Amino acid sequence: MEIAHLIRHPEELNSDTLYELRRIVATCPYFHAARLLFLKNLFLLHDPTFDQELRRAAIHLPNRRLLFDMVHGDRYTIVATPQNTAPPPTASAENNDRTATLIDSFLHTSTAPEGKSPKVVCADPSSDYMTYLFQTRKLTLPPSDDTPLTDNNADETPTTERTTSLINSFIGQRQERIVLKPTSFAKSDEEENTAESEDARPDESYFTETLAKIYIQQGRYERAIEIMTKLHLNNPKKSIYFADQMRFLQKLAINNKHKS
Q: How far apart are CA 149 and CA 154, in angstroms?
């Protein structure tokens, strides 16, 4: 009988091996491997002398944990769980994502609730003024000489005549002559300083929501708050709307200062 083979295959322990192991333990009482196999054999065969031999082995063996694992080891098996190796998101990354989300939602929902926006007419920069006039008045351009005449062109003849009459009336209108008032070239220093200060002062007509959106995308929240404040003063009917936008921009500005 080989002790090493029985250690690797304890399922082969039976009554025959029990007799051999009992003889080895009696001959060599401090043979730890043989005593453990002897106890294991008694445990598997439900031998009544197992409790007595277990107490005796607790004296001879230096490590009693082996006895516990042999008897109750199957009940306390530890199952290894896979660990998540992905690094947790940092606080700065979460703040950046939250700020970007708030800005996107603000830009998509910052349209004024009252009134409808006027229809924008897209004019081709390469076209002349008459083409732009036709687009704004929903008129049809007269067909060119290369275009073949069809039934549809015949139906559009009244529209073409109306367009031609509008062009003739537009050209025939007498434009008022622009009269320049004579002004003296000599100006005092105070007038020059006043003119320079007026030129340096930004025109309030340019303070629009579109410009505020541009400043928000650039991260210049204080400039956007100034524009919203002027719009709030110029449009008292929409004070609630602009007040909400200003509060939102103030929170973004505070958050941007904390990040920097």
A: 7
